[in-house]
Amino acid sequence: MDKSKFIRLVDNYVTGTLSGEEWKQLKYALDDPENLAYLDEELLLTFLNDTYFLEELESEKDAINKVIIQKIKRLNESNHLADHPMVTARKSFVRNWQRAAAVLLFMLAGVVSWWVFNKSNNEKQHIDFVQHTIDVPPGKNGAILTLADGREVVLDSLSDGMVATQLGTKVELKDGQLVYDVAETSPGKILFNTMTTPKGRQFQLLLPDGTKVWLNAASSITYPAFFAGDSRRVKVSGEAYFEVSKMKDMPFYVDINDKAEVKVLGTHFNISSYEEERSIKTTLLEGSIQTSVLDAGKAMEYMGLEPGQQAEITDNKKIKLNEAVNTDQVMAWKNGLFNFENASLAEVMRQLERWYDIDVVYEQGVPPMVFGGEMSRNVSLSGLLNGLERAGVHFRIEEGNRLIVMP
């Protein structure tokens, strides 16, 4: 099989977008040992102890997965994999995790025949692969919708269909996204709704004007059930990504924690405004926007942005322009990834607190470490910690979702 096609199939598998027909093609391709040349042995060594990928394989074929685990354990013992120099001078860790998943997929295909002849013996063997006796699952889609009358609707487990009706405006769930079907005639009274994502949740929303909003964990957005007048206004906290519907005569405004404001006609941008991060960052992906500091509700000190630029507002109400921003890192959360490039341990832990709904405790202060690389947000906490521990930091998970950072 052509290398580019093979890698594309592998990437689709890891990101969960592999179709039934592509799955057949991938399984056929994995039967060909020549495809091993496309895979990086170092990546295999990096991920031999990550449980996430093994769990992925286990969901496909449990018995074969058990064989893979046993085979890996023997490799660890015989090939001195534990001594492999996986930590770089700048203590970066997992890179190209998608390719690493492909290695384990290849192993799955490669041991099928071996499994057939050893099935009875291997099914009796005890599997002890997870290093952390307590584990925490990754976050998922879910949110709480607070309607204008104060009613709260938990969206986590609702099926597609009608959620509520407000003065003729229908609120519906469609394909896991909240959608507003606005009445043809304005009811006159403006109703405000609030969507909140607790820790460990994220959600997508289609506003009444067609604007798309993605909410990261521990975030909220307040917006009208329909837009009226000469402007569209919403209020956010936490982190949100916007794809604003273009309406030339009705500009779109985002109030950020009553501290900053973004004005836009139609464009794509990300806002990160977590209180614990000490600054508000607005990153432009497409189009143009104007960011300003709010002082007593009034916009002050305006700054225009071009794609790839970021406006950062600090506690002293000053705007700093960050150019040539790594937009892949900014948008990693929306794309289902953690991107820890140049991130301190404290920054990494704050991301984990929000996504896994955990409390992080440092036994002896915060080690001065800097990380790099990407990893899926679908990995369980123990799987992610296995990667971090290769960079020289150690953890234990306690009851009550407490993560202890040890020296």
Task: Outline the structure in words.
By secondary structure, the protein is α+β, with helices and mostly antiparallel strands. It contains ten helices and 26 strands. It has helices at residues 3-14, 20-30, 41-47, 51-60, 62-78, 97-110, 112-122, 327-330, 345-356, 381-389; strands at residues 140-141, 144-146, 152-154, 161-166, 169-174, 177-181, 192-197, 201-206, 212-215, 219-224, 232-243, 252-256, 260-264, 268-273, 280-286, 289-295, 298-305, 310-313, 319-322, 337-339, 343-344, 359-362, 370-371, 374-376, 394-398, 402-406. The longest helix has 17 residues, at 62-78. Mean pLDDT is 75; it is low at 39-131. The chain has a 19-stranded mixed beta sheet that branches. The protein has three domains: 3-122, no CATH class; 141-329, Jelly Rolls (Sandwich), CATH 2.60.120; 336-406, 3-Layer(bab) Sandwich (Phage tail protein beta-alpha-beta fold), CATH 3.55.50. Helix content is 26%, strand content 32%. It is globular and about 65 Å long. Strand 4 (161-166) and strand 5 form a beta hairpin.
